[in-house]
Amino acid sequence: MLKKGSAKKVTIYVNEDTQYHLQPLYEAILTYLMHKGVAGATASRAMAGFGLHQVMHTTKIEVLTEHLPIRIEFVEAADRVDALLPTLYDMVTDGLIEIQDTVVVKSAMKERPAEAKRPHERKQAKAKLLRIYMGEADRWNGEPLYDAIVKQLRMMDISGATVYRGILGYGTKGHTHKERFLHMSHDMPIMIAVIDAAEKLEQATDTIESMMQDGLIVTSDVDIIRLVHSPLTEVPDAAQPSS
């Protein structure tokens, strides 16, 4: 954790679409800083800007949004910054690195309460995995289909369901759906994953199939390994009189 007193603030400006070893440069920088134990770093995306290339980039023109500037900022002790700079210098081949003197007035972090260790019981059984694929824009009785399916599963006493939203995909129609940073698609692929006993999912599948007009339902045999923690043992209050 940072100590109170003098420090250095480092600000790095890069383009959002600049790559470093097959990943976005700003993500690579954040990963490097985290692995080096930097107290914290923040990346923020600008709404508009231009650099040495004298080209204006703005969110108003979609083709220019992926080249918007990203600002990465972190504060660390001067000696830590000196140790980090050589690698950062090599990573940023097109951008700007700025260092300023600063003062840490307060650095505080809430301590997480220690969790009491509890014994657990291991349960294993055979079950079925049900996966339901649909589009985010699919509807059923005026509400999103995925929302309606989850509600239906709860009413059928299914043990649990998880909804996943894709960031890129296509289906049998051949249409590609892609999520952009500011321009969110409203028809991204949706998958609902459910695990329960085979007989319960057979009934659920029939109900879900009647709700869907376009999509895919897949089932698989799975082995469940579940760790069930025992409840914490309550200690009687010594101030209360015994009966």
How is this structure best described in words?
It is a single chain. This protein is α+β, with helices and mostly antiparallel strands. It contains 5 helices and 16 strands. It has a 4-stranded antiparallel beta sheet with strand order 4-7-1-8, with helices on one face. The chain is elongated and about 65 Å long.
User: Helix-strand pattern, N to C?
Assistant: EEEHEEEHEHEEEEHEEEEHE
Q: Helix proportion of residues, in percent?
A: 10-25%
How many beta strands in the DSSP annotation?
16
Overall 3D geometry? elongated
Q: Architecture of the largest domain, according to CATH? A: 2-Layer Sandwich
Write the layout of secondary structure elements.
Elements: E1 5-15, E2 19-20, E3 23-24, H1 25-35, E4 41-45, E5 48-49, E6 57-58, H2 62-65, E7 69-76, H3 78-91, E8 95-104, E9 120-135, E10 139-140, E11 143-144, H4 145-155, E12 161-165, E13 168-170, E14 176-178, E15 189-196, H5 198-211, E16 216-229
Outline of the structure:
The chain has 243 residues and is of the alpha+beta class. It has helices at 25-35, 62-65, 78-91, 145-155, 198-211; strands at residues 5-15, 19-20, 23-24, 41-45, 48-49, 57-58, 69-76, 95-104, 120-135, 139-140, 143-144, 161-165, 168-170, 176-178, 189-196, 216-229. Helix content is 22%, strand content 39%.
Descriptive key words:
243 residues, alpha+beta, Alpha-Beta Plaits, 4-stranded antiparallel β-sheet, 16 strands, disordered C terminus
